[in-house]
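Researcher: Next sequence.
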Amino acid sequence: VLMMILPLVLIMVLPKIMNDPETRKEMEQLNNLTSYNMPEMSEMITSFLSGSEKPKPKAVKAANKKRQ
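Model: Next structure:
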C-alpha cells in the first residue's frame, strides 16, 4: 500500500514545492555546485577504443633525413 500511495503523494506535492521561490533558489545553487567540467562520455569511449597514436610520422621523417 505504501508503494502505491508514496508516488501519488510525491506527484501531488513536488510541483507545489517547486513553485516556492526559496526552494527554487536552493535547487539552482545545488545544481551550480555539482556542475563538473568532465568530458562527454562518448569522447571518453572513443579515445579509449581508438588507443594512442604512434609517433610513426616523426620516425619516417628522421629516416628520410639520414638517407639524404
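Model: The two ends are 86 Å apart (CA to CA). Residues 26 and 32 are 10 Å apart (CA to CA).
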